[in-house]
């Protein structure tokens, strides 16, 4: 039995998205190392992802997983707006982590929202290693 053409196309699309994400992530990790970070850890990224922080605006404590869920392969939902958030895992969402500018934009926005400050280069690198694994 021959595979369906759509299945072949989908597999090729996912593979190209994962490859693009890997290239962009590697470039970002090199940039963070140039800023003094290094020894990136998926375990540290996972711990940061799931850690709850006091809401800088005085609301309930939140974590990255509050909106994105702890399973990076599943879609999330914004806790305030209810908007669906596509999965973080590049193997599931081929658009994820393929644009360095978007990565930095969302780090800035989400780190300030959850941590109450910008993420360090080390935290960003740990997170990216966690997500791509």
UniProtKB/TrEMBL annotation:
Taxonomy, superkingdom: Bacteria
Keywords: Heme, Iron, Metal-binding, Signal
Signal peptide limits: 1-21
Keyword Metal-binding: yes
Gene Ontology MF: a single term: metal ion binding
UniProt cross-references to Gene3D superfamilies, sorted A to Z: Cytochrome c-like domain (1.10.760.10)
Domain Cytochrome c: 40-133
InterPro entries, sorted: Cyt_c-like_dom, Cyt_c-like_dom_sf, DUF1924_SHP
Presence of keyword Metal-binding: yes
Pfam families membership: DUF1924
Name of the molecule in the record: Cytochrome c domain-containing protein
């Amino acid at each position: 039995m021959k595979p369906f053409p759509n299945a072949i196309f989908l597999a090729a699309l996912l593979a190209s998205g994962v490859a693009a994400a890997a290239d962009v992530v590697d470039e970002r990790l090199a940039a963070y190392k140039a800023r003094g970070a290094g020894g990136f850890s998926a375990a540290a990224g996972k711990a940061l992802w799931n850690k709850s922080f006091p809401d800088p605006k005085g609301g309930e404590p939140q974590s990255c997983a509050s909106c994105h869920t702890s399973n990076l392969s599943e879609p999330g939902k914004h806790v305030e707006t209810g908007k669906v958030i596509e999965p973080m895992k590049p193997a599931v969402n081929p658009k994820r982590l393929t644009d360095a500018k978007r990565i930095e934009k969302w780090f800035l926005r989400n780190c300030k929202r959850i941590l109450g400050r910008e993420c360090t280069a080390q935290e960003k690198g740990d997170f990216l290693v966690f997500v791509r694994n």
